[in-house]
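Help: read this over?
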Amino acid sequence: MLFEPISLCGMEVPNRFVRSATHEWMAEPDGTPTERIGDLYEELAKNDVGLIIAGYAYVNPKGKSDHLQQGIYDDRFIEPYKKIVDRVHKYNSKIVMQVAHGGRQTMISSEAPYALAPSAVTEKTMGMTPEEMSEKEVLETIEDFANAVRRGKEAGFDAVQLHCAHGFLLSNFISPHTNRRKDRWGGSTEKRTQVILDIINRAREMIGDDYPIMVKLNATDGFPEGTKNVLDAPESIKIAKIFAESG
Protein backbone atom coordinates (compact mmCIF):
# COMPACT_ATOMS: atom_id res chain seq x y z
CA MET A 1 0.00 0.00 0.00
CA LEU A 2 2.84 2.43 0.77
CA PHE A 3 3.80 2.67 -2.89
CA GLU A 4 0.28 2.88 -4.30
CA PRO A 5 -1.21 6.24 -5.41
CA ILE A 6 -4.03 7.90 -3.48
CA SER A 7 -6.48 10.70 -4.28
CA LEU A 8 -6.80 13.44 -1.64
CA CYS A 9 -9.39 16.16 -2.26
CA GLY A 10 -9.06 15.46 -5.98
CA MET A 11 -5.24 15.68 -5.81
CA GLU A 12 -3.50 12.57 -7.12
CA VAL A 13 -0.56 11.67 -4.87
CA PRO A 14 1.85 9.05 -6.31
CA ASN A 15 2.40 7.14 -3.04
CA ARG A 16 1.58 7.19 0.69
CA PHE A 17 4.79 8.82 1.93
CA VAL A 18 4.03 12.20 3.49
CA ARG A 19 6.47 14.75 4.80
CA SER A 20 4.41 16.58 7.39
CA ALA A 21 5.13 20.26 7.97
CA THR A 22 7.93 21.24 10.33
CA HIS A 23 9.59 24.58 11.05
CA GLU A 24 12.94 24.69 9.24
CA TRP A 25 14.31 28.04 10.51
CA MET A 26 15.43 28.72 6.92
CA ALA A 27 13.41 31.79 5.83
CA GLU A 28 14.63 35.38 5.73
CA PRO A 29 13.80 37.50 8.82
CA ASP A 30 10.77 38.95 6.97
CA GLY A 31 9.48 35.47 6.08
CA THR A 32 10.71 35.31 2.48
CA PRO A 33 11.42 31.65 1.56
CA THR A 34 15.04 30.95 0.64
CA GLU A 35 16.92 28.73 -1.78
CA ARG A 36 17.87 26.51 1.17
CA ILE A 37 14.19 25.67 1.66
CA GLY A 38 13.97 24.83 -2.03
CA ASP A 39 17.02 22.56 -1.65
CA LEU A 40 15.30 20.65 1.14
CA TYR A 41 11.99 20.17 -0.66
CA GLU A 42 13.66 19.23 -3.94
CA GLU A 43 15.73 16.60 -2.13
CA LEU A 44 12.52 15.11 -0.69
CA ALA A 45 10.87 15.09 -4.12
CA LYS A 46 13.95 13.57 -5.76
CA ASN A 47 13.72 10.70 -3.26
CA ASP A 48 10.05 9.94 -4.03
CA VAL A 49 8.23 11.51 -1.08
CA GLY A 50 4.77 11.61 -2.61
CA LEU A 51 3.34 14.50 -0.59
CA ILE A 52 5.46 17.32 0.82
CA ILE A 53 3.78 19.74 3.24
CA ALA A 54 5.86 22.89 3.54
CA GLY A 55 6.70 24.45 6.90
CA TYR A 56 4.02 26.65 8.42
CA ALA A 57 3.78 30.12 6.89
CA TYR A 58 2.30 32.99 8.87
CA VAL A 59 -0.62 34.84 7.31
CA ASN A 60 -0.02 38.13 9.12
CA PRO A 61 3.07 39.59 10.84
CA LYS A 62 0.97 39.76 14.02
CA GLY A 63 0.74 35.96 13.89
CA LYS A 64 4.40 35.03 13.51
CA SER A 65 5.39 32.43 16.10
CA ASP A 66 9.11 31.85 15.62
CA HIS A 67 12.33 33.25 14.18
CA LEU A 68 13.06 32.65 10.48
CA GLN A 69 9.55 31.28 9.94
CA GLN A 70 8.17 31.37 6.41
CA GLY A 71 5.58 34.05 5.61
CA ILE A 72 2.70 34.32 3.15
CA TYR A 73 1.18 37.65 4.19
CA ASP A 74 1.97 39.60 1.03
CA ASP A 75 1.79 39.02 -2.74
CA ARG A 76 5.54 39.59 -3.01
CA PHE A 77 6.04 36.07 -1.60
CA ILE A 78 4.29 34.41 -4.56
CA GLU A 79 7.26 34.52 -6.92
CA PRO A 80 9.89 33.04 -4.56
CA TYR A 81 7.48 30.25 -3.60
CA LYS A 82 6.78 29.61 -7.28
CA LYS A 83 10.49 28.93 -7.83
CA ILE A 84 10.46 26.37 -5.01
CA VAL A 85 7.30 24.68 -6.31
CA ASP A 86 8.82 24.41 -9.78
CA ARG A 87 11.83 22.61 -8.32
CA VAL A 88 9.55 20.04 -6.65
CA HIS A 89 7.42 19.60 -9.77
CA LYS A 90 10.45 18.47 -11.77
CA TYR A 91 9.70 15.17 -10.06
CA ASN A 92 6.47 13.29 -9.38
CA SER A 93 5.78 14.76 -5.92
CA LYS A 94 2.96 17.04 -4.82
CA ILE A 95 3.66 20.01 -2.56
CA VAL A 96 1.22 21.68 -0.16
CA MET A 97 1.54 25.05 1.54
CA GLN A 98 0.63 25.11 5.24
CA VAL A 99 -0.70 28.43 6.55
CA ALA A 100 -0.97 29.50 10.18
CA HIS A 101 -1.41 32.26 12.74
CA GLY A 102 0.39 31.94 16.07
CA GLY A 103 -2.54 32.95 18.24
CA ARG A 104 -1.59 32.53 21.91
CA GLN A 105 1.85 31.34 20.76
CA THR A 106 2.68 34.46 18.76
CA MET A 107 6.25 35.72 19.13
CA ILE A 108 6.11 39.16 20.74
CA SER A 109 7.86 41.83 18.65
CA SER A 110 7.50 45.44 17.53
CA GLU A 111 5.06 44.26 14.86
CA ALA A 112 3.16 42.06 17.34
CA PRO A 113 3.41 43.75 20.76
CA TYR A 114 0.78 41.36 22.16
CA ALA A 115 -0.74 38.01 21.21
CA LEU A 116 -4.26 37.65 19.84
CA ALA A 117 -6.63 34.80 20.66
CA PRO A 118 -10.37 34.06 20.75
CA SER A 119 -10.38 34.67 24.51
CA ALA A 120 -7.96 36.05 27.10
CA VAL A 121 -6.89 32.67 28.53
CA THR A 122 -3.31 32.53 29.83
CA GLU A 123 -0.85 30.38 27.90
CA LYS A 124 0.93 28.75 30.85
CA THR A 125 3.95 27.42 28.94
CA MET A 126 4.95 30.93 27.90
CA GLY A 127 3.30 32.70 30.83
CA MET A 128 1.43 35.06 28.53
CA THR A 129 -2.19 36.19 28.50
CA PRO A 130 -3.38 37.13 25.00
CA GLU A 131 -5.79 39.89 24.03
CA GLU A 132 -9.30 38.75 23.13
CA MET A 133 -9.89 39.42 19.44
CA SER A 134 -12.55 41.95 18.49
CA GLU A 135 -15.08 41.08 15.79
CA LYS A 136 -13.12 43.32 13.41
CA GLU A 137 -9.89 41.45 14.14
CA VAL A 138 -11.55 38.08 13.57
CA LEU A 139 -12.93 39.25 10.21
CA GLU A 140 -9.53 40.65 9.21
CA THR A 141 -7.89 37.34 10.13
CA ILE A 142 -10.41 35.40 8.03
CA GLU A 143 -9.40 37.62 5.11
CA ASP A 144 -5.69 37.06 5.91
CA PHE A 145 -6.12 33.28 5.74
CA ALA A 146 -8.22 33.40 2.58
CA ASN A 147 -5.61 35.56 0.86
CA ALA A 148 -2.90 33.14 2.00
CA VAL A 149 -4.81 30.31 0.30
CA ARG A 150 -5.09 32.42 -2.85
CA ARG A 151 -1.36 33.15 -2.82
CA GLY A 152 -0.60 29.46 -2.35
CA LYS A 153 -2.62 28.60 -5.42
CA GLU A 154 -1.05 31.41 -7.45
CA ALA A 155 2.41 30.16 -6.45
CA GLY A 156 1.54 26.75 -7.92
CA PHE A 157 1.14 24.69 -4.74
CA ASP A 158 -1.00 21.60 -5.32
CA ALA A 159 -3.09 22.40 -2.22
CA VAL A 160 -3.10 24.56 0.90
CA GLN A 161 -3.40 23.19 4.44
CA LEU A 162 -4.94 25.24 7.26
CA HIS A 163 -3.03 24.66 10.50
CA CYS A 164 -5.80 24.03 13.04
CA ALA A 165 -3.65 22.23 15.61
CA HIS A 166 -0.93 22.51 18.27
CA GLY A 167 -2.13 25.60 20.12
CA PHE A 168 -2.03 28.04 17.24
CA LEU A 169 -4.89 30.46 16.53
CA LEU A 170 -7.32 28.20 14.66
CA SER A 171 -6.96 25.46 17.27
CA ASN A 172 -7.56 28.15 19.92
CA PHE A 173 -10.95 28.72 18.30
CA ILE A 174 -11.78 25.01 18.19
CA SER A 175 -10.86 24.30 21.81
CA PRO A 176 -13.55 24.95 24.45
CA HIS A 177 -10.74 25.72 26.92
CA THR A 178 -9.25 28.59 24.92
CA ASN A 179 -12.45 29.78 23.22
CA ARG A 180 -14.94 31.25 25.69
CA ARG A 181 -16.58 33.69 23.30
CA LYS A 182 -20.31 34.42 23.40
CA ASP A 183 -20.67 35.51 19.76
CA ARG A 184 -21.08 33.46 16.56
CA TRP A 185 -17.53 32.09 16.88
CA GLY A 186 -17.90 30.60 20.37
CA GLY A 187 -20.04 28.15 22.32
CA SER A 188 -21.11 24.92 20.63
CA THR A 189 -18.83 22.70 18.56
CA GLU A 190 -20.34 24.16 15.41
CA LYS A 191 -19.79 27.76 16.52
CA ARG A 192 -16.19 27.13 17.60
CA THR A 193 -15.55 25.62 14.17
CA GLN A 194 -17.29 28.43 12.29
CA VAL A 195 -14.24 30.69 11.86
CA ILE A 196 -12.50 27.94 9.85
CA LEU A 197 -15.58 27.42 7.70
CA ASP A 198 -15.64 31.19 7.16
CA ILE A 199 -12.03 31.01 5.96
CA ILE A 200 -12.81 28.13 3.61
CA ASN A 201 -15.88 29.88 2.21
CA ARG A 202 -14.02 33.16 1.70
CA ALA A 203 -11.12 31.34 0.03
CA ARG A 204 -13.57 29.57 -2.27
CA GLU A 205 -14.92 32.95 -3.33
CA MET A 206 -11.39 33.88 -4.39
CA ILE A 207 -10.15 30.67 -5.99
CA GLY A 208 -13.18 28.54 -6.88
CA ASP A 209 -14.31 25.11 -5.72
CA ASP A 210 -11.82 22.85 -7.51
CA TYR A 211 -8.68 23.63 -5.50
CA PRO A 212 -7.84 21.32 -2.57
CA ILE A 213 -7.99 22.87 0.90
CA MET A 214 -6.76 20.58 3.66
CA VAL A 215 -6.83 20.84 7.46
CA LYS A 216 -4.32 19.77 10.10
CA LEU A 217 -6.32 18.88 13.22
CA ASN A 218 -5.16 17.37 16.51
CA ALA A 219 -7.39 14.88 18.28
CA THR A 220 -6.91 16.30 21.79
CA ASP A 221 -5.69 19.59 23.24
CA GLY A 222 -2.78 18.08 25.13
CA PHE A 223 -3.40 20.22 28.21
CA PRO A 224 -2.39 18.78 31.62
CA GLU A 225 -4.75 16.23 33.17
CA GLY A 226 -7.47 17.97 35.13
CA THR A 227 -7.80 20.95 32.78
CA LYS A 228 -11.49 21.69 32.31
CA ASN A 229 -13.38 21.93 29.02
CA VAL A 230 -10.78 20.51 26.66
CA LEU A 231 -11.02 19.10 23.14
CA ASP A 232 -11.22 15.30 23.08
CA ALA A 233 -11.14 12.69 20.32
CA PRO A 234 -14.93 12.26 19.95
CA GLU A 235 -15.41 16.00 19.45
CA SER A 236 -12.46 16.10 17.04
CA ILE A 237 -14.16 13.41 14.95
CA LYS A 238 -17.30 15.55 14.91
CA ILE A 239 -15.24 18.57 13.80
CA ALA A 240 -13.49 16.53 11.09
CA LYS A 241 -16.89 15.53 9.72
CA ILE A 242 -17.95 19.21 9.66
CA PHE A 243 -14.83 20.03 7.63
CA ALA A 244 -15.42 17.09 5.28
CA GLU A 245 -19.00 18.20 4.65
CA SER A 246 -17.69 21.66 3.77
CA GLY A 247 -15.48 20.13 1.09
The chain is about 35% helix and 15% strand.
